[in-house]
């Protein structure tokens, strides 16, 4: 009875998440029959991806996800470092919560809000023209790569701070003191002790950011404008025309990349230690 | 150490700038939600909300689903946190609980939609609640877990020695001490629920929540006073709930 109760959450995850992901992979090999789909074993959906313009979309999406994640990491790491090392626990907690709230606000609302700042008649352009800095509204502010990256980074960077903060906060300060006592400079201590010990957190942040950016569907529509296609909104538009096998195949690409990242995390970066750090963490 | 503190001042500037950038876009929306089409201050948008049936229905649906997700996710999160302590495979259980964080919303929405289609379950409030609970569960589990980490299990041992059953010990000793974490998890899950769009829209069927209504009318007709009012409402209620969450969880003193 007690065991059964305690395994409920696991069962919930398995039934409503692991099984559905398996179903997605299965349906990606099924065929389309009118507006429905039926069991089969065909690679047709994958052929559609490879042959059509969708391959470009896939490659561009992976590139965009890599770039946005790298930029996010460069912003999130120093923030997490300062919060873990230099801030009091209360201040760190408050700032972490401040970073969480925008992440929680409905991302459609958040991105639509950006458009009212960045558009041709938006706040920024009106200000620049009134101040006489430019005479034409800046076009690249919205419906551009700039705005899409802004959308991706502002959506996923804030939450990448958390795993980084966790792994940095868990580093034993005695290592740092030992390093300093042995005459290492602050930079050397960072490169040889702090950075390697925070790798599990870096990897958690990278997986979270990369997978999120790769599957993001609202940002390209709102911030990219008409015709800006990334993998995420290609999946939703396949769903809109009820081509579920194609949507499933595109989604399978994302799922397989996520699994590969998870497995390499397990093998290379010591996932177990990272999970252990979460378990030991006291706020 | 002291010298490195002063050298890190650019990072504090970065924190301030990034936070300002993250909050900046919400300001024009809040201002516009209190402005009429001529640009004068007014609450015409909010008044119109109350006269639009579809919006009232969406508000009600969001509220019902939000409460259900808050209850379900905090119960499952509590059970998950206990099972992490007691099932003997803590890391595996934790990894499973965190999995939904690493699956993009669109893939999770599609996967749930396919599962329900194949099993012949038609979209309903229940399917929406399941999908949103899945998304809230990692956060609920982590929040309860961190509060539980401040609880000393020796108290439970003492209760057992004194003859309490496991249920009694939990109810009388542990629950009161970790209750702030459970309420924190519930309010966090509620915030997540009322803001979720992409997973919900894959399994919504005929039901609209506030975010799916905003998303579909934005795609179909673009921005309108009603939409600004709804967005203002979402932003302001998220801020209010976040402050409530902070108050719920910050008051607790670490168990001595």
Give the CATH architecture of the largest domain in chain B: Orthogonal Bundle
Gyration radius of chain A, to the nearest Å? 22 Å
What structural category characterises the helix and strand content of chain A?
Answer: mainly alpha
Mean pLDDT of chain A: 88
Distance between the termini of chain B: 31 Å
- Run of helices and strands of chain B: HHHHHHHHHHHHH
Q: Could you tell me the number of beta strands of chain B?
A: 0
How many domains of chain A? The number is 1
Pick out the low-confidence regions of chain A: none
Question: Main traits of this protein?
Answer:
heterodimer; A: 283 residues; mainly alpha; MetI-like fold; two-stranded antiparallel ribbon; 15 helices; 2 strands; globular; B: 256 residues; 13 helices
Q: Can you describe this structure?
A:
The complex is a heterodimer of chains A (283) and B (256). Chain A is an all-alpha fold and 283 residues long. Chain A is 76% helix and 2% strand. Chain A is built from 15 helices and 2 strands. Chain A has helices at residues 2-6, 8-27, 44-51, 54-85, 89-104, 107-118, 123-130, 145-169, 173-181, 186-197, 199-215, 218-224, 231-240, 244-268, 271-280; strands at residues 31-33, 36-38. A two-stranded antiparallel sheet of chain A has the order 1-2. In chain A, strand 1 and strand 2 form a beta hairpin. Chain A starts with a helix and ends with a helix. Chain B has 2 domains: 1-33; 45-250, Orthogonal Bundle (MetI-like fold), CATH 1.10.3720. Chain B has 13 helices and no strands. Chain B has helices at 2-7, 9-23, 26-33, 44-50, 53-86, 90-98, 105-118, 125-149, 154-161, 166-195, 198-203, 210-221, 225-250. The longest helix of chain B has 34 residues, at 53-86. Chain B starts with a helix and ends in a 6-residue tail after the last helix. Chains A and B meet through helix 1, helix 2, helix 4, helix 5 and helix 6 of A and helix 2, helix 3, helix 5, helix 6 and helix 7 of B.
